[in-house]
């Protein structure tokens, strides 16, 4: 594999294990969800997020996704409850999408792929640093939200309008006063399982909370996301239109539902 991982034929998901052996581990993400096999776990509590809009700092294009970064130096924007046994701090959120509206999500539900998937990444503050949390099975909690095509989502536009400032790889711009809970669907029902980051190094440290209800964005909003480039300003332009990892083997893991 090339020195840098990516999503192309020569450095894509099938090659990641060459530099990151855990990518072939027993707890990899994403996975396919088959709802008829998923049991309701009555012990799963509701979850809640209390985010401080002032903790949003910057938005960046790293050539693989657009990411919004938060101040996580203290308990400021927090995720609690659900399957979590401690409070988790919001560190960043980012998206995965495809080249057209009919695919792009990483997880799938009963064979359905959504147009995109939003990942809100939080770390268990009992581990003192994000780096230490990555080494723990309950170190990180990711809230995953599916995006489907329909009417425009006004709150999503706040994010999309900032993309003009980060068209190419390596660009970063201030992005403040944003509470990402404005992107949550109305229903808080979720599926949960133990898995990994879906990008290298694919650490197996994640408690997933996948929200059952997708949010709706417009075709035009998805097109705006695809207007980013994975290339730097001084390079030939390469559109950033495919940044999802395909489903990984479940290997006996159990997915639980918070709802009947
Ligand atoms: Zn992700």
Automatic annotation (TrEMBL):
Cell cycle in keyword set: no
UniProt keyword annotation of DNA damage present: no
Source species, domain of life: Eukaryota
Boundaries of every Alpha-carbonic anhydrase domain copy: 3-259
InterPro entries linked: CA_dom, CA_dom_sf, Carbonic_anhydrase_a-class, Carbonic_anhydrase_a-class_CS
SMART domains, A to Z: Carb_anhydrase (SM01057)
Entry keywords, A to Z: Acetylation, Cytoplasm, Glutathionylation, Lyase, Metal-binding, Phosphoprotein, Zinc
Name of one Pfam family that matches: Carb_anhydrase
GO biological process: response to bacterium
Subcellular location(s) per record: Cytoplasm
Cofactor: Zn(2+)
EC number: 4.2.1.1
Catalytic activity entry: hydrogencarbonate + H(+) = CO2 + H2O
GO cellular component, one term: cytosol
A single MF term (Gene Ontology): nickel cation binding
PROSITE patterns recorded: ALPHA_CA_1 (PS00162), ALPHA_CA_2 (PS51144)
Cited function: Reversible hydration of carbon dioxide.
Similarity comment text for this entry: Belongs to the alpha-carbonic anhydrase family.
Protein name (database record): Carbonic anhydrase
Native organism taxonomy: Eukaryota, Metazoa, Chordata, Craniata, Vertebrata
